[in-house]
Design a protein that fits this description.
CATH architecture of the largest domain: Alpha-Beta Complex
Shape: globular
Distance between the termini: 69 Å
Number of strands: 24
GO molecular function, one term: glycosyltransferase activity
Number of domains: 2
Membrane topology: Single-pass membrane protein
Bound molecules: 2-acetamido-2-deoxy-beta-D-glucopyranose
InterPro entries: Glyco_transf_92
Organism: Drosophila virilis
Radius of gyration: 32 Å
Pfam family, one: Glyco_transf_92
CATH class of the largest domain: Alpha Beta
Helix content: 25-40%
Strand content: 15-25%
Structural class: alpha+beta
Number of helices: 12
């Protein structure tokens, strides 16, 4: 009886299933019928996702070429008057002896010059002004004024003038004091003072310059004369006038000083420093840097992304300029160039003076102070001062460290003593709640002792006085009323250097220095916003997967270890 009942139920279920199945089939059939009568859309693909934009205009191309080859004066060349000069000749585009893209080679007697850039200098404190300075590498090390360089001339080419004005090179200033010899080449600044009065307007700025050994020689080199005036100041006349300089000489009180930062060739091919770069740039901005100029070598793709994002979103704040090394180290081939830079460290250091001085001379009319830093260095004002403008004002008043008081009112530079903030990987985090990816905010432990006045110091250099820049201090300044650089005592400011000290004894007994926390929470917020925007922050599933991966790896290693015993 019971068995019969359950049989009935089973049969019943089977019948219902069959009915349901039939209904579904009917439904599907009907639907497919509907589909069959609907017109099928045929898509015929006739185009690919290629770039269909127009060829850039000639003006746009000139701009692009100028960005690629900053010293090559194509724009100026295309405007030359058609007449041939009786003295010298402007070389044609292919009549120039290029070297490694950004340099031009000139042989003078037994010397080889690699020209990199030329800059118009009419700063009020320069006694030889106005002059054109030519930045070059030369295969000769010599103490200033001890050696006689062969006689050379600058042919200065002016807009709308057929004939050049030819002046003697009056000075070779070697931007390196510490010796050396062949096969190295040495950074050198040539002075070409413009004639004070000879039919030309003293203030007229030459457009191009060639270096020659005879006054009317036909040159095989030609550089654009850089003159990047301060266009933000609207009451300046189109030509530089002495009045402009006077205004600059006495900056209005309460007018914030303008700062910019020059960074050498960015050579970070295998180490991804992108998060450090973001934190550093945001702190530079908070301290008052109006612009940071980088020179391109080879960067990790993530760093390139960071730099490109800043260039796109704050084009006035970040700039990336092309660069190669003299002595012909080919800079195409990222892996080779990185290797070649490491092969001869002395060559690499000598070459660093080129971006520093190029950056300084391009920006000296637009900024009051220039800093030359690496991305692990920060000039940190202390106490209640939180920006460089207030720091410079204070630095004028404080004593010069370990120096007797001198009768000075102006200084070439203000320098700050170095102190190391090492990694301390074995020590526990200072801020348990703060992620480690805020590197400087987390690394508040530093060595107890500051370096002396000279070792690894960094400065803010006055654009009114400085002439030749080395990475640690100026090698030449005007000598026109200003004193040598002042070392600001550590009560007021210090140079944070986020790396390991050379002297490992100093690692013992670090102290906590949380001065950087005065920039909180702004610094953390800005850095976080960049991390988020650029996709550096992993989502939860990525974190969990990484955790699982880590645990599996640990287990595997443990198994292997057990298996081995
Ligand atoms: C060039 O010649 C001078 C004088 O003959 C010599 O003192 C100097 O070392 C030479 N320089 C180079 C780079 O060969
Ligand atoms: C000015 O020009 C004259 C004639 O062209 C020349 O003799 C003289 O040396 C020039 N002076 C300067 C300072 O260049
Ligand atoms: C520097 O900081 C002081 C004090 O916080 C502030 O009053 C001043 O406006 C700041 N200057 C600049 C240029 O940011
Ligand atoms: C910092 O403190 C000093 C002394 O108390 C004061 O003179 C100065 O104006 C303060 N500076 C700032 C930027 O607040
Ligand atoms: C400091 O220099 C000023 C101007 O050059 C001069 O008048 C003053 O006497 C000097 N003071 C000392 C102590 O040398
Ligand atoms: C290293 O630092 C320690 C501690 O400051 C110091 O005593 C020692 O002289 C330093 N060594 C060198 C070689 O500078
Ligand atoms: C950084 O580089 C790594 C390795 O190429 C890549 O997996 C990661 O997505 C990059 N991060 C960002 C934010 O682009």
């Amino acid at each position: 009886m019971h068995a019969n009942h359950s049989r009935l139920i089973k049969i019943f279920l089977v019948i219902i299933s069959i009915k349901l199945f039939l209904i579904l089939v009917l439904f599907a059939y009907n639907n497919s019928n509907v589909n069959r009568f609907r017109p099928r859309r045929m898509v015929f693909i006739d185009e690919l996702l290629i770039d269909k934009s127009e060829t850039p205009s000639w003006q746009e191309r000139l701009k692009l070429i100028r960005e690629e080859m900053p010293s090559f004066p194509l724009e100026e060349l295309t405007h030359r008057p058609p007449l041939k000069p009786s003295c010298g000749l402007v070389p044609s585009v292919l009549g120039i002896d290029y070297s490694n893209d950004y340099w031009q080679m000139v042989r003078v007697a037994n010397l080889t010059y690699y020209l990199f850039g030329a800059y118009y200098d009419n700063r009020e404190k320069m006694t030889e002004a106005p002059l054109v300075r030519v930045l070059t590498m030369i295969n000769l090390y010599a103490k200033h004024h001890e050696v006689k360089y062969p006689e050379t001339f600058c042919q200065l080419w002016y807009k709308n003038r057929v004939e050049p004005i030819v002046v003697s090179v009056t000075d070779h200033r070697l931007i390196w004091f510490w010796g050396g010899g062949p096969p190295q080449v040495f950074p050198t600044l040539l002075s070409c003072p413009l004639p004070k009065k000879n039919g030309t307007n003293v203030e007229e700025v030459p457009e191009m310059v060639s270096l020659v050994t005879e006054r009317c020689e036909k040159a095989r080199n030609l550089l654009r004369v850089v003159y990047e005036r301060d266009v933000s100041n609207t009451d300046i006349l189109p030509t530089a006038s002495p009045k402009e300089q006077d205004q600059k000489d006495n900056p209005k009180p309460n007018k914030p000083l303008r700062f910019m930062v020059c960074v050498k060739a960015m050579d970070f091919l295998y180490v991804d420093m992108s998060s450090r770069l973001i934190e550093w740039l945001e702190l530079m901005r908070l301290l008052g840097a109006g612009k940071v100029v980088f020179y391109d070598a080879q960067m990790h793709p993530n760093m390139t992304r960071v730099i490109n994002d800043y260039i796109e979103n704050s084009p006035d704040f970040v700039e990336l300029r092309p660069l190669s090394m003299s002595r012909g180290v080919p800079h195409t081939g990222r892996h080779f160039h990185h290797y070649a830079m490491g092969v001869d460290n002395f060559n690499r250091i000598l070459n660093e003076m080129i971006p520093y001085n190029d950056c300084f001379y391009r920006n000296m009319y637009k900024y009051d102070y220039v800093g030359v830093f690496d991305i692990d260095e920060i000039i940190m004002p202390l106490g209640n001062v939180t920006n460089w403008s207030d720091l410079i004002e204070l630095a004028h008043k404080v004593p010069d460290y370990e120096r007797a008081p001198a009768n000075c009112t102006n200084w070439a530079s203000f320098c700050f003593r170095n102190v190391y903030f090492p990694r301390y990987p074995e020590r526990p985090k200072v801020y348990k709640e703060l992620p480690s990816f805020y590197y400087m905010l987390q690394h508040v432990e530093r060595v107890a002792e500051h370096c002396d006045r000279y070792s690894a110091t960094k400065c803010l250099h006055s654009t009114r006085y400085v002439i030749g820049l080395h990475n640690h201090f100026p090698l030449f300044h005007a000598g026109n009323g200003e004193c040598d650089p002042k070392s600001v005592p550590i009560e007021f400011a210090q140079l944070h250097h986020y790396r390991e000290p050379d002297n490992k004894t100093r690692l013992i007994d670090p102290i906590i220095d949380d001065n950087i926390w005065r920039f909180q929470p702004t610094l953390q917020q800005r850095v976080y916003a960049k991390y988020k925007k650029l996709g550096f922050l992993p989502d939860i599933s990525q974190v969990i997967n990484a955790e699982i991966q880590r645990r599996n790896d640990d287990e595997r290693k443990l198994q292997e270890a057990i298996g081995m015993t």
